[in-house]
Amino acid sequence: MKKLLLCGIAALFLATGTATFRPSPPEAPAHTARADETLDETALNALVASGQRPHPQEVAGAVHYAPGTYPFPAALTPNDEWALRTHLVGSYAPPDMFDHPYSGDLYVIDNLSLTDLHMKCQSHTLGCADRRDRWCLVYIARETDLFVYGVTINLIMRHEIGHCNGWGNEHSGARSFITEKSN
Q1: Which residues sit opposite 135 in a β-bridge?
Q2: b/e per residue, 100-138, with b = 16+ CB within 10 A?
């Protein structure tokens, strides 16, 4: 009797079309991996694309600073002053309203080759920031490359933390670190 009942239910499903398999269209992936991307890079890029705050162990090669723990370079060091005297020209510092320690989780990946940095930042630069709601990921070139261009990690970090704090990519309101030095 049970077999007959189950066969009847199966026949009903087949007759009404409710038993047919109709796959839903696949969702577009949030991140498409490049052919040369490592597994760690793929995982990180997928997290960045999703906007979720990554766990510190999930960001390969990054140093994680919990909110308020990054040693913000508020004062210029002798190396910063050397860079400003010898190489750096123009406005580079973020406006006062963005020039303060970042209040969210900060992830820093430094020591990148210029080629890797340009792929991550999608521009020819020495650093960039990817800001999210409660966290920010900063990429920085190797210190030797920064030295060649006459920039220090402190100057780059202040600039990028400005972006983490909401300063736009158009750099409106940029100040000169040289003016700050004379104050």
Answers
A1: 105
A2: ebbebbbbbbbebeeeebbebbeeebbbbbbbbeebbbb
For residue 20, count CB atoms less than 10 angstroms from its CB and return exposed for 0-12, middle for 13-18, buried for 19 or more: exposed
pLDDT in tens, the chain (183 residues): 555 544 555 554 455 544 433 344 444 445 455 555 565 566 666 666 666 666 655 667 788 898 989 988 888 889 888 888 887 555 688 999 999 999 999 999 999 999 999 998 888 889 999 998 889 999 999 999 998 888 889 999 999 999 999 999 999 998 887 755 544
Instruction: Give the up-direction half-sphere exposure of residue 138: CA atoms within 13 A in the CB hemisphere.
Output: 28
Alpha carbon 96 to its chain's center: 23
